Automatic annotation (TrEMBL):
<comment type="pathway">
    <text>Cell wall biogenesis; cell wall polysaccharide biosynthesis.</text>
</comment>
<keyword id="KW-0328">Glycosyltransferase</keyword>
<comment type="similarity">
    <text>Belongs to the glycosyltransferase 2 family.</text>
</comment>
<dbReference type="InterPro" id="IPR001173">
    <property type="entry name" value="Glyco_trans_2-like"/>
</dbReference>
<keyword id="KW-0808">Transferase</keyword>
<protein>
    <submittedName>
        <fullName>Glycosyltransferase</fullName>
        <ecNumber>2.4.-.-</ecNumber>
    </submittedName>
</protein>
<feature type="domain" description="Glycosyltransferase 2-like">
    <location>
        <begin position="8"/>
        <end position="143"/>
    </location>
</feature>
<dbReference type="InterPro" id="IPR029044">
    <property type="entry name" value="Nucleotide-diphossugar_trans"/>
</dbReference>
<dbReference type="GO" id="GO:0016757">
    <property type="term" value="F:glycosyltransferase activity"/>
</dbReference>
<dbReference type="Pfam" id="PF00535">
    <property type="entry name" value="Glycos_transf_2"/>
</dbReference>
Length: 284
């Protein structure tokens, strides 16, 4: 493989230990072609645990931009992308979306670039990641109406959209499809981007193997926390961290028609029902 230039886009917020681990793993990548250049553009959303200072001390090569705590993942990734274009560096060949809680395997970039070479130029490569405890796939490409996880099979596998944890985007895709849509502030933006890639006639493939570790968020948090009541559950699910109604409606209209009205209300109804059931269990 010829040498390439990769712009790594990251966001962080109060996860100093994990963020430093992610950056350390990125810095220790092996097997890359000589003269390959990796530049990281990280947006920190108002961390109060010293994350920006720790990054600057341990990884002075990383460009750190500090913004307010009201900047969530999708917005932060747009800022990081903008910064990569305005950096004055020579034009990059790929953008790599990388979550700050992903610890890449030592050959992850080699696997991603090798997959990109295997599936042909101009296609997206999604890195599947696994849980630290049992190696089960946690985030990957998604497929079908149920958005099922696409498991690594030893060869590149097509997917319909993707989680944004590890995604390699060729320059041509970025120029054609653009960044995560500005309507999305936190979640949903990665799924929307993947569907827009597909609608543009561009294929996305999952890597043949896992490329790192990324544990799922705890299952009973946010709107799923037991005992919080219907009002609090609905407040949480409609917040920026979960499914803000306007952003969810845009997503449903774009990618769920003609089922958009049903899809729109379904998660909120399910959340209210779940909270009611947990607060007032049967027989009490």
């Amino acid at each position: 493989m010829p040498p390439v230039r990769i712009a790594v886009l990251m966001t962080s917020h109060n996860r100093q230990e994990k963020t430093l681990a992610a950056l350390a793993a990125l810095a220790e990548q092996r097997g890359l072609p000589e003269d390959t250049t990796v530049r990281t553009y990280l947006v920190d959303a108002g961390s109060t645990d010293g994350t920006p200072e720790a990054i600057r001390a341990a990884h002075p090569e990383v460009q750190v931009t500090t913004v307010g705590p009201d900047i969530y993942w999708s917005h932060g990734m747009r800022i990081a992308s903008r910064n990569s274009r305005r950096s004055g560096e020579p034009a990059w060949d790929y953008q790599l979306w990388l979550n700050d809680d992903v610890t890449l395997d030592g050959d992850a970039l080699t696997v991603l670039l090798g997959t990109a070479h295997a599936v042909g130029p101009g296609n997206v490569v999604v890195g599947a990641v696994r849980a630290s405890a049992d190696d089960r796939t946690t985030y990957s490409g998604r497929r079908g109406r149920a958005l099922a996880l696409v498991e690594p099979t030893g060869r590149p596998e097509r997917c319909d959209t993707y989680n944004g944890n590890v995604v390699l985007l060729p320059r041509a895709v970025c120029e054609r499809v653009g960044d995560i849509d500005e309507v999305f502030q936190h979640g949903i933006g990665d799924y929307d981007h993947g569907f827009r890639v597909r609608q543009a006639g561009i294929a996305a493939y999952v890597t043949p193997c896992h490329v790192g570790i990324c544990d799922r968020n705890p299952p009973h948090t946010g709107s799923r926390e037991p005992g919080i009541g219907v009002r609090e559950a609905l407040r949480r699910i409609t917040s920026q961290r979960e499914l803000p109604p306007r952003q969810w409606w845009v997503y449903c209209l774009r990618h769920g028609w003609p089922r958009a009205p049903l899809l729109m209300f379904s998660p909120y109804v399910k959340t209210a029902a779940r909270a009611s059931f947990r607060r007032f269990p049967a027989g009490r």
